[in-house]
Design goal:
The chain has two domains: 169 residues, TATA-Binding Protein (2-Layer Sandwich); 70 residues, no CATH class. It is globular. Strands 1, 2, 3, 4, 5, 8, 9, 10 and 11 form a nine-stranded antiparallel β-sheet that branches. The protein has a three-stranded antiparallel β-sheet with strand order 12-13-14. The protein has a two-stranded antiparallel sheet with strand order 6-7. The protein is built from six helices and 14 strands. By secondary structure, it is of the alpha+beta class.
C-alpha cells in the first residue's frame, strides 16, 4: 500500500465543485417546485435520482435539493452529494461523514473484500469488466502535529494509517486510457463514502488509431529528444477531457516520459505526441472561452 493523498484531495475538490454544479437549479424531488420544470428537466432529475438510489444504493435524507447545469446533473442532502455527467459515464458521490473518522470510524474490511465490492459497483454502473486494467488498495498516512506557542517548534506524533481507497485504471482492447479512472472509498457500514468514476465511451476510430500507435512504437520509431533529459518510457494510449470539464474530447496519443539528467529536478517532463513526434492538441476542458468580463478584469489587474 502507498500513500495517495494528493490525488484523493484533488478528487474531493472535484466532488465539491460538481455538487455545486448539480444543484444550481433549486427544487427537491417530489416537491411542488419540481412542477415548474419542463418534462425533459424532470426526466433528467428522475434518472439522476435513480442512479443515486437504485444503482449506487445511496441512502438519501428526506430533504433533497436537485438540479442540473451545463452537462452535469446532481442532488444534495445534508450529508450526501451526488453528481453525474449527462454526456459520459462519469459519476461522483461523497458522504461528508466519510471524512470525520473520529466519529464515523474507518472501514476495516480486508483488501480482497474492498476490491470485490468495487468491481461489483463498477458493474452496476455498466463499466465493462474487461476494461479494468488494474485495481489496488492504497492507504493514507496521517500525522498530527502541535506547535509550541513559546518555542515555535512543531511536535509531531507518530504516523498512523488512515483511510483506504480502491484505485482502478483502464484499458480498452489492450490500449491504456490514461485519463480514465475510478476511485472508491467505503464507510465502516460498507456504504459509499467517496466515489469518482470517469469512464467515457471511446470512439472506434480513436481506438483504431491508438492501436496503430502501439504497433508503431514497437518498431524503430524515432522518439523526440528533450534537452537535459533522457527517455524513460514510451507508451501509446488515449487521453480525454477531465471529469469536471464541460467538453469531451478524446484523442489518441503517444506518451513519452523523460527523466531529468539533473537529479535536483524532481518532476519528470511528459510529452504527448503523434506518429510524427509532433505535440498533439490536448483535450479541451471547457467548450466556451472565458467570459469577456473576466478577460478584462484579468488585464486590468495585470496592468
Amino acid at each position: 500500500m502507498t500513500s495517495n493523498v494528493e490525488n484523493i484531495t484533488r478528487s474531493l475538490s472535484i466532488v465539491a465543485l460538481l455538487a455545486t454544479f448539480g444543484c444550481q437549479t433549486q427544487g427537491g424531488f417530489g416537491t411542488p417546485s419540481n412542477t415548474t420544470l419542463s418534462p425533459d428537466e424532470q426526466e433528467i432529475q428522475r434518472r439522476t435520482k435513480h442512479v443515486a438510489v437504485e444503482t449506487l444504493h445511496l441512502k438519501l435524507d428526506k430533504d433533497v435539493t436537485a438540479g442540473h447545469k451545463d452537462n452535469f446533473s446532481g442532488l444534495r442532502t445534508e450529508n450526501i452529494s451526488f453528481s453525474q455527467r449527462l454526456d459520459s459515464r462519469t459519476f461522483f458521490a461523497y458522504d461528508k461523514r466519510f471524512s470525520n473518522t473520529k466519529e464515523t470510524g474507518m472501514n476495516e474490511e480486508d483488501d480482497d473484500t474492498l476490491l470485490k465490492r468495487s468491481h461489483d459497483l463498477l458493474e452496476r454502473l455498466n463499466i465493462p469488466t474487461p476494461e479494468i486494467a488494474s485495481a489496488r488498495v492504497v492507504q493514507e498516512n496521517t500525522q498530527v502535529g502541535e506547535r509550541d506557542a513559546k518555542t515555535g517548534q512543531l511536535k509531531l506524533e507518530s504516523i498512523k494509517p488512515g483511510k483506504r481507497w480502491v484505485r482502478i485504471t483502464r484499458q480498452v482492447d489492450g490500449v491504456p486510457v490514461f485519463s480514465s479512472r475510478a476511485t472508491v472509498g467505503f464507510m465502516p457500514n460498507r456504504e459509499i463514502g467517496f466515489l469518482e468514476v470517469h469512464w467515457p465511451q471511446i470512439p472506434a476510430e480513436v481506438l483504431k488509431k491508438a492501436g496503430g500507435y502501439l504497433h508503431l512504437i514497437e518498431k524503430d520509431w524515432h522518439v523526440p529528444e528533450l534537452k537535459g533529459a533522457r527517455v524513460e518510457s514510451v507508451t501509446a494510449g488515449i487521453v480525454h477531457s477531465p471529469a469536471a470539464a464541460t467538453a469531451m474530447d478524446i484523442v489518441p496519443v503517444i506518451r513519452v516520459i523523460y527523466s531529468p539528467l539533473d537529479n535536483h529536478i524532481g518532476k519528470k517532463p511528459v510529452a504527448y505526441v503523434d506518429a510524427e513526434g509532433k505535440p498533439v492538441t490536448m483535450p479541451r476542458v471547457f467548450l466556451q472561452p472565458p467570459r469577456e468580463e473576466l478577460k478584462t478584469e484579468r488585464r486590468s489587474h495585470q496592468g
